[in-house]
Amino acid sequence: MSPSNLICACCNKSVKLNMMIKCTVCMKIFRHLCVNLTIDEVNILNDQSKGCSWSCSSCRHISNQINDLKKLILSLQDDIKAIKGRNGATTHDPKDSFVFEELIEEINDRNSRKRNVRIFGLPEQDQADVPQTRLTKDKSQVVDVLKVVNLNVHANEVKPLRQGGLIKANVRLNYP
Prior knowledge:
about 180 residues; alpha+beta; PHD-type domain-containing protein; Znf_FYVE_PHD
């Protein structure tokens, strides 16, 4: 770049070579007065043998943000290592998963039976030979019992099931 082409990024004025400083990050050129540097400071910063670098305020702000992000990343990496260490110490016992599966099965079984009602002591019907007649009479008796306890259940929702053989005892109801 010829000295006549050097323009300050801050004030857009022409800059002499010995009065300018270049940002090592964005490579923009600044007049020493615009960035509050003396000519001696500019000469020291521009001397490549001294290994100095200078960055403008915009790039310094970005550099600070980058440094903060690097610190945050390192901190998060440490946290991840700690979490992995804790999780690695927790081993999964196959028995635990089996117990968990049994628990799920039990919950599902209970949910499927949550609206079931058992009625004990309901006498067997006389028409033991005709299952449909026995079922119809059981259903009407169950609906009568449910009406007495003030449950609004329609007869279509009642499905009486006798447990065991044809003995006096239990009726199990399933209704949706």
